[in-house]
Design brief:
By secondary structure, this protein is α/β, with parallel strands linked by helices. The protein is built from twelve helices and nine strands. It has helices at 17-28, 45-48, 70-80, 97-112, 117-122, 135-144, 157-180, 201-216, 221-224, 230-250, 258-266, 282-287, and strands spanning 8-12, 34-37, 59-62, 65-67, 254-255, 294-297, 308-315, 319-324, 330-334. It has a nine-stranded mixed beta sheet with strand order 5-2-1-3-4-9-8-7-6, with helices on both faces. Helix 1 crosses helix 8 and helix 4 (97-112) packs parallel to helix 8 (201-216). The radius of gyration is 20 Å and the shape is globular. InterPro entries: DUF7962 (IPR058268), Glutathione-S-Trfase_C_sf (IPR036282), Glutathione_S-Trfase_N (IPR004045), Thioredoxin-like_sf (IPR036249). Residues 124-248 form the DUF7962 domain. Residues 10-83 form the GST N-terminal domain.
Length: 341
């Protein structure tokens, strides 16, 4: 069966900034998908039906393969859906080393990794942002960070207020960097970061934090608004117009419940051929791992209390694939723990 004939199911909640990256990508590439909407806090029984303990959003199922973080999701979509007239590419033909480096992860690391743009954005969230002072939300996020659910929250209204000035400085520095480099092109400022005619994956990776902050009205307009950073704010507005037009053209995705989503996943074929365990991988060597071993893996930056158990199917320098115990699906996650989603 061709990959294009397999169901694509996105498990997410609407306001997740990480999930938006995947939604934008799918719409800009005109790849149809079905969504299974989830609550913003645990429990998520729909995800548990897949045999997955991973607690972060989004997850993407392509057939019977389930991918657990957005870096891997975007990478797999690039691999499995090559550019065509039906699915236009979001990767510019970058012949220079800088362009290739930006496409292969530099901007993604800058925005996603611990201490990066997203984490600073958390402390810019307005004090009155609905839901963020709900005790259930604070306890859920404390558990995700590996802290006691009943202890002081690191992202409470008071904690955010204390760290907001420093976080705003970090965001402003990032805005200045983009304004004065990738968005600056002489007399005719660049429309997109790689001077392309349409947005690319590089734009998605760099813009998502700024879209999130703009939606929350989290930035002081006098010092960080359009007058201070005109190119950056114009770029954000252009991007939202582009994805809005794509979403309108593609139409609303079908929405299914957890039972139907699980039925679609377990009734489908696999999207990828089974890989191997790389015998040259330093972790494989150190742990003496072999294909078929029973293993547990977990993120090392957040959500580490939710450990995946299963049969090791393949492992490379960039990816670990397990077969969920007692289920007919496999799930893949990035080898990197820090900052991966």
């Amino acid at each position: 069966m061709a990959v294009e004939d397999l169901p694509i199911i996105l498990y997410h909640y609407v306001h997740s900034p990480y999930a938006r990256r995947v939604v934008w990508y799918l719409n800009l590439r005109k790849i149809p998908y079905t969504q299974c909407l989830q609550p913003p806090i645990l429990p998520r029984p729909d995800v548990a039906q897949l045999g997955v303990a991973y607690r972060r959003i989004p997850l993407l199922a392509i057939g019977r393969d389930v991918y657990l973080d957005t870096r891997l999701i975007l990478q797999k979509l690039e691999q499995l859906y090559p550019a065509s007239a039906a699915h236009p590419s979001l990767v510019a033909a970058a012949s220079d080393p800088v362009g290739r480096a930006l496409h292969t992860g530099l901007l993604s690391a800058w925005t996603n990794d611990a201490g990066g743009l997203f984490w600073n954005g958390v402390f810019c969230m307005p004090a009155d942002l609905p839901g963020t002072d709900d005790p259930r939300f604070l306890a859920d996020r404390a558990e995700m960070m590996g802290l006691p659910r009943d202890g002081p929250s690191p992202i409470s209204k008071e904690a955010r207020a204390a760290r907001r000035p420093e976080a705003l400085c970090e965001i402003a520095e990032a805005m200045h960097l983009l304004e004065s480099t990738l968005l600056s092109g002489g007399e005719d400022d660049k429309k997109w970061l790689l001077a392309t005619e349409t947005p690319t994956l590089v734009d998605i990776e760099a813009v998502f934090v700024f879209v999130w902050l703009a939606g929350m009205r989290a930035l002081p307009q006098d010092t960080m608004g359009p007058a201070a950073f005109p190119r950056l704010h114009a770029w954000v507005a252009r991007f939202m117009q582009a994805v809005g037009a794509a979403e309108k053209e593609n139409g609303e995705p079908a929405t299914v419940g957890g039972d139907e989503a699980a039925k679609l996943v377990f009734g489908a074929a696999f999207a990828e051929e089974e890989g191997a365990v790389d015998g040259g991988n330093p972790v494989v060597v150190a742990e003496g791992l072999q294909k078929g071993d029973q293993v547990r893996v977990w993120p090392t930056d957040s959500g580490s209390g939710h450990k995946e158990s299963g049969t090791l199917v393949s492992m490379t320098l960039r990816e670990i694939v397990l077969e969920a115990q007692g289920r007919g699906a496999v799930f893949g996650c990035t080898r990197r723990g820090t900052g991966s989603r």
